Amino acid sequence: MKLLEGIVEPNQDDRDGHIADLEADVRGLRDELRYAHAEAAKARRDAARAVGQLRQQLTPLYRALQAVFGELDAAGVEDAMPTSSAPTAPTSRTAAIWESWKARMPGGPAKIIDALALQSDMNTQQLAIATGVHRNSIPAMIYKLNKAGLLNKNGGRFSLKAL
């Protein structure tokens, strides 16, 4: 009759069984979490080891190329005619001038100079991505560089002025 009147008495055995099932689930999930943490730590160690091996393999080549390019710079060798539309590397003189400007305008403007030196003709979104600066901060930095007479603007795209 109690069921017809809407009175339900919980069965203690069902409740205890349900709690036991939940506790078993929690133990299983904790075990899975420990396993996942162990796997993640192993993956980090493996990645660090692989990067270390890659660095070890490439270091002699890197040092050799540094020496070669240092000798080319010392000899005053300029890049030949570029084969693509990519910007050419700056000469030692222009690099020194841009370094001077970066020292005068540290932070975001210096990052924009670096980004435009590598890839000219970028819009504000591309500059934000290249510099790691929030896109809402880019216009103020562009204004500062433009006020110093360092930028060319073509529509919504920017490039460094030729020195």
Describe the structure.
The chain is mainly alpha-helical. It has two domains: 1-77; 92-160, Winged helix-like DNA-binding domain superfamily/Winged helix DNA-binding domain (Arc Repressor Mutant, subunit A, Orthogonal Bundle), CATH 1.10.10. The protein contains five helices and three strands; from the N terminus they run αααβααββ. Strands 1-3-2 form a three-stranded antiparallel beta sheet. A hairpin with a 2-residue loop joins strand 2 and strand 3. Residues 81-87 have low confidence and may be disordered.
Question: In a nutshell, what does this entry contain?
Answer:
By secondary structure, this protein is mainly alpha-helical. Helices cover 65% and strands 6% of the residues.
